[in-house]
Amino acid sequence: MMAAKVPGARKRKSDDAPAPVAEPVTEQATERGAGGHADIRLWLRLLFCAGRIESVLQSRITGEFGITLSRFDLLAQLERVDGGLTMTEVSQRMMVSNGAITSLVDRLVDDGFVVREVHPQDRRTNIIRLTHHGRERFLAMAQEHERWVAGLLDGLDDTVKATLLDGLGRLKQHLEKATA
Description:
There is one protein chain. The chain is mostly helical and about 180 residues long. It is about 60% helix and about 5% strand. The protein has helices at about 25-30, 40-65, 70-80, 85-95, 100-110, 130-155, 160-180; strands spanning about 85, 115-120, 125-130. It has a 3-stranded antiparallel β-sheet. A hairpin with a 7-residue loop joins strand 2 (about 115-120) and strand 3. It starts with about 25 loop residues before the first helix and ends with a helix. The model is unreliable at about 1-20 (pLDDT under 50).
């Protein structure tokens, strides 16, 4: 039996287990469940919002630049460091398997966005670096990506954004402590 899925949600890249399933949380559902299950409703709302934003961004980046959001994310990781990253470092940063990274890197090498270089201390290891062309293309994509994200959130006033940012920051800290 197939379960309903959050629009735009992706299967988790880290393993073969299906992504959590969530239905859109309507105001009616919120009112009906006001007495209980607040933690589940909050989790489902977070999944829905993240999935919807990711779906829109995936559609736009593919349409505008012909690249997947996963490849864009890998380019973002490489752009943040000067000396490049090993495949293992990239997989840890992106929280996916080395195998998933290998196929992303293969495509980015084919597109001329990254190069593989042999690690100077360990010839069995490759360092992945952005090419000049890759950096230029990434920066152009990142500028549009930022504009798209801002556009998706521009209907919220500054107070709501600040409250969400504060609350999600607290949630992040709590989860880091709880799962350490």
